[in-house]
Amino acid sequence: MISVLSKDECLEALRKMLMIRRFEEACIDAAQENKVPGHFHVYIGQEATGVGVMATLDPGDYVHSTHRNHGHLIARGADPNKALAEILGKAGGYAGGKAGTLHGCAPDLNFPLSSGIVAGILPIAVGTAYGLRVRKLPNVSVVFFGDGAMEEGAAYEALNLAALWKLPVLFVCENNTAEVDRRPGGGQYHAPNMSIIELTDLARIMGITTQIVDGLDLGAVWTAARDARNRAVNGEGPTFFEIRTNTWPGGQWPTLVTGRTDISHAWTNEVPAQYEKNANWFKRNDPVLSVAREMLKLGVASHTEIEAIDIRVRNEIDAAVKFANDSPFPSLESALTDVWPN
Amino acid sequence: MEHTMFGEAKIKAVGDLMRDDERVVIIGGAGFGGLLHSQYVKPLFEEFDSRILRTPIAELGFCGMGVGAAIAGLYPIVTIGTGSFAFEAWPQICNEAPNITYMSGGQVKVPVMFQALVGIRISGAAQHSARPQAMLMQVAGLQVIAPARAADVGPLLKAARDSERPTFWIDHALLFEETDLYPPAKTPPALGKAEIVRAGKDVTIVGYSIDLVRCLKAAVELEKEGIDAEVIDLRTLTPLDWETVCESVGRTGRLVVADECYPAASVASEIASIFADKGFGLLKKPAKRLNFPAVPVPLSPPLEIHLLPTVSKIVQAAKELVA
Q1: Residues in contact with B163: Cβ distance below 8 Å, sequence separation at least 6, in sequence order
Q2: Which of B51, B96, B165 lies nearest to residue A124, judging by beta carbons?
Q3: Residues in A touching B107 (Cβ below 8 Å)
């Protein structure tokens, strides 16, 4: 329930969620125009997770992500201009076009890297947490990863090390297959090919606090992350979350099957005829619509206020698209720089 | 002349660095020598007990921790133990640490030092005798240091820390008790700078780490037979000082390289390749590359030693070139 948040916090959270949605729609547009080098992964359907967790963090906390990092960058407050330019491989990007979508970073926001290896980032996050511990800083490391990361050995070692020394880590496992196939070894693409029944089982037997959270429930994500952060800072060790979201049905590459999000669905509750096949997405599973509806229901915001936020966000993303398109490709000389620190 | 053991110099250097810089921590359960040398390591580990993270057998996990701790402002020295164990952490050493600075457009520094006791250690058999250094030379963004001489250890360790580059420090299992045969260089060693340890005019012999010790012993033997060998210690493999080698061969016209790595894409082949382009025409005779043949390392000592680039093989190769 979003009632745990103040009105301002709610409005800011919705703004960030809409920003992620519009950013990802812009990425898909760019891909359809063949402007995105390489393949990429969108965060549509998981917005409440990144935004809810990030709202509980301090600037001194470290944030780490994987291949699906666009939403985490935006939720952390990254500049959408630089983030989009990076995805297009342009000089104006956060890394001057050297990282692209797979390795999104915003070092000025303590978001040092995203690893494109599904579990590769987990040991690194345990290391930043150790660095914080040694330096006696009252901060935490947060690491976002998908359910697929749990299939790699690095995840097991990272969990064990964090548990062993009670390091201040929030492991945020975003399971975006929750509705697809809950059977162990289900075998579908993106399904948890794990012999354990729940993704939290492995962390739990190591003595790590675990919690399964509904990824549509912004308030629940926020509360869980806040509590975990407090425990971590107080020396009570890491927490492992499985945040369950529903696979966005629009990802039938590269078409936007569910269309561009129309925020008015939050109050009209109408599903356009061409999307009838994916009615559940519009009625239940879209976190942006779901949070907007909650805000309307609780009287936190009117639909005109929500519409105004959306218009502002769309203008910002339009500007980001222009910035990224206008940004030149990096100079060829730059290919050989930044191998070593200056 | 002071005769310091390589291993003692290493332990002193690490201690000095830790006393000088509170950001330096040690991650990993293994010390700096083999089990036989634990008596030397013990005082260091006692003095800095709280700054040593004794880890489980989780090379992938704790090497990754070293990467993260470096990002978060520490200077971790990650002790992997035997060089073969580096393969357990390969994803972090080769695919995470060295890419991060580049992937952030130069904004994120990863000042981590991995280190391991690599090499043919006599009866390590196939799975405890790896020489990963040539493979690590294929990793862009990773500095590879492989000193042989006690006097170089302290300055190179400090230079590596100051460089803030992800670094792999190659120690050799048999180097610990070696002492320098020749006086230290007059100028302190620099990263990417080889050293002519023994000047000579007849043949250039190149080595690093334990192979350098073998090269120097060979030079002593060759001197008895009237052959004046120039011996070069590469010291750092990335960056590699090809100029010093080129300049030397320009004078001697003959080259022997001793390298425990397997022959293909090895340190020796990289050195020899200099004379296919930049140093083309400088060789008067074909280069002699002495590698460990491409077979898994056998247990039985006679077999193992048979395959090593031993002192006698270096002597023989040099004699053939000068004849």
Answers
A1: A340, A341, B111, B143, B191
A2: B96
A3: 95, 105, 107-108
